[in-house]
Amino acid sequence: MKALLDCRRWFSWCLTLCLALMLGHATLAAQAPHAPAVQAINVETREVYRSSKKPAYTSWVSLFPGQAGEWYLSCEEVTKSDPPPPRSSLDHWYRMGLPDGYDKSTLRMEVVLLESGDRCSTWKVLSRWPCRFQHSAGSFAAVKTRDGRFLRGVWSGYRLDDAGHPGEILYESRDRGKSWKKLPALLDKRFVAYPHRMKQLRDGTIVLAVPYHAAWGRDAELPLRTSMRLEAQNEMQMGIYMSSDEGRTWQGPTIIFPGHVVSETDFVELPSGDLLFLNNSIFAQPGRQIVYRTKQGLLPGPMLRCVGQKIPEAVVLTRDGILVGGMRNGDYSWSDDEGQTWQQLAGSPACGYQPMIRQMDDGRILCAWHRGADDAFAKADQFVGLHLFRLKVNRRTVETRLRLERDYDARKDRYRNAYTVTLTADGRPLPKKTVELWVVARDKPGYDSWCHVPIGERMKRGGKLLRALTNPAGRAHFVLPEFDGETNPHASYQLFARFNADRSDQHYKPATTPQCEFYAVSHGNRPQ
């Protein structure tokens, strides 16, 4: 009898344990979808620099590392001057094309360089560089070279005097920023340039991203800064210069985002050594472009649109392999698929204006910005600030891949209008997942020979979307019988397959095949 009671107690205990485990798993399963995959933690906001004089105008930040753990930050400070400098000529002001209230020619303008040697806890002013530029010195592009020099790019087309020309955009300091020497012109005087990013890669190569276009002026091709030629597809182009000798000589430019409006871009170095550039959502066609580094030089890939995504203007690739970006007076976001898709970063604050973002050696994300916007002098109480935070990865999404193959009928020696799509995750078959196939016949609504129209718009216009579940081998099968009776050898259709396009499955990255075009009539043994 005692043995029977012990057996019942043991059975009851096991049943209770199983129920508890089941409830625990159910609770975790219910909570898991709501937990953010990536979030910001240990968030700090710091004020770095505010002008001691009112009104406080401190803006247009550049943030860059040194070579021994130190960090540097520069900004433009504008104050009243007594006596004021001479006002720029009416002709100069007219050709600049700026709004009323933005004339800074009668003010004192300085680029302030700050240094931190304690992981950005405290900062000291290294130097003040008096500069005579209208509206902004534009000193966003800067590095400290491995031999201890500072390099700085400026918008010399905005200068207030006639010394030099707009292609002279680089300056060098050999005494920790106390004095600056103009370097030889990087561009011909027929062009005006706006250096925007300068970074040193792992192998020491310095990359400079420079948008440029035809110079303006009384005797130039463009009469005003705001002029555009009617026949120009895009007046401004984004160029990349490279230096392998610490900025002493440069090769370039290599043009990226051709034909697209882009005057500001940021980039990261991928693990392969290639460069990923972003055209952010400030512009009409946000997207990304990989520039491959080959033995023969830089080889730009195509621009890849990021339709429906909010692409940040400042970006860093963390050591965890996750992209983190910030948008002026907007959100921080993250991407784990090289910028194809972006999601808001949970736990992060609102980003400041004109941000620049990096990662510190202790793993923290560091973003510098100024409070305010593109304000006229005395219109806002500006200051330069920092956000610091750590990235917590709660779960990593799994890499997926789709392979599309057309079925072949060996008996009839012809390719069928049927397709097998194979879905793999980290190289292994992924079963019981929904795969979609979209198809449109030639010259029907939605058809586009060159993919000029975003696929979302094309799918709304026409075509049909099929869905199928993958089998244990990760395969889904699709049949298109409407094309089997076709006799015209030129009749064709376009199609592509995709998985998790809306990222509703939070455990896997999306995957999409290239668009393929097939002829409806296609034999294996072609006539000789």
* Strand residue content: 35-45%
User: What does the overall shape look like?
Assistant: elongated
Largest sheet descriptor: 5 strands, antiparallel
In the predicted model, the low-confidence regions spanning at least 5 consecutive residues are 1-5, 13-32
Number of domains: 2
At CATH's second level, what is the architecture of the largest domain?
Answer: 6 Propeller
Mean pLDDT comes to 91
**Highest-level CATH class of the largest domain:** Mainly Beta
Number of strands: 35
Number of helices: 3
Q: What class would the helix/strand composition place it in?
A: mainly beta
C-alpha termini separation: 90 Å
In the CATH scheme, what's the topology name of the largest domain?
Neuraminidase
Helix content: under 10%
What's the gyration radius in Å? Answer: 29 Å
Description:
With 528 residues, this protein is mostly beta strands. It has two domains: 41-393, Neuraminidase, CATH 2.120.10; 400-519, Immunoglobulins (Immunoglobulin-like). Helix content is 8%, strand content 39%. It has three helices and 35 strands. The strands form eight sheets. Strands 10, 11, 12, 13 and 14 form a five-stranded antiparallel beta sheet that branches. Mean pLDDT is 91; it is low at 1-5 and 13-32.
